[in-house]
């Protein structure tokens, strides 16, 4: 009887925590949804416009792009493989399109 009680308690705990995780994930939204919302609200330029600006001074192949909030500002973090085959990490103000920093990475 004690074994069945423990199994039931463990099952209830598992169901409860899975439900909470699903609830949090639903309300968090995807990165793409948050980026689309920021563009629609005028808080950020579209990624295509940002990439056009970045590629003027830093040509290369796009490896990754993320939109993150830093304080009150939205920042695009762009990862490129430059024409010299080196990785570049470019941070861009999402509202203005101004390049904030460029860091060189490894291969």
Explain this structure.
The structure is a single chain. The protein is an alpha+beta fold and 107 residues long. It has one domain: Nuclear Transport Factor 2, Chain: A (Roll), CATH 3.10.450. The protein has three helices and four strands. It has helices spanning 2-28, 31-40, 47-57, and strands spanning 60-70, 73-82, 87-93, 99-104. It has a four-stranded antiparallel beta sheet. A hairpin with a 5-residue loop joins strand 3 (87-93) and strand 4 (99-104). The longest helix is centred in the N-terminal third of the chain and has 27 residues, at 2-28.
What is the strand and helix layout of this fold?
Elements: H1 2-28, H2 31-40, H3 47-57, E1 60-70, E2 73-82, E3 87-93, E4 99-104
Antiparallel strand pairs: 1-2, 2-3, 3-4
Key traits:
single chain, 107 residues, alpha+beta, Nuclear Transport Factor 2, Chain: A, four-stranded antiparallel sheet, elongated
């Amino acid at each position: 009887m004690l074994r069945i009680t423990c199994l039931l308690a463990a099952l209830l705990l598992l169901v409860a925590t899975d439900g909470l995780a699903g609830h949090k994930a639903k309300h968090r939204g995807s990165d793409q949804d948050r980026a689309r919302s920021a563009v629609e609200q005028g808080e950020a330029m579209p990624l295509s416009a940002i990439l056009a600006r970045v590629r003027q001074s830093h040509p290369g192949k796009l490896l990754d792009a993320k939109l993150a909030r830093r304080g009150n500002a939205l920042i695009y973090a762009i990862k490129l493989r430059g024409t010299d085959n080196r990785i570049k990490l470019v941070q861009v103000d999402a509202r203005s399109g101004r390049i904030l920093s460029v860091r060189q990475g490894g291969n």
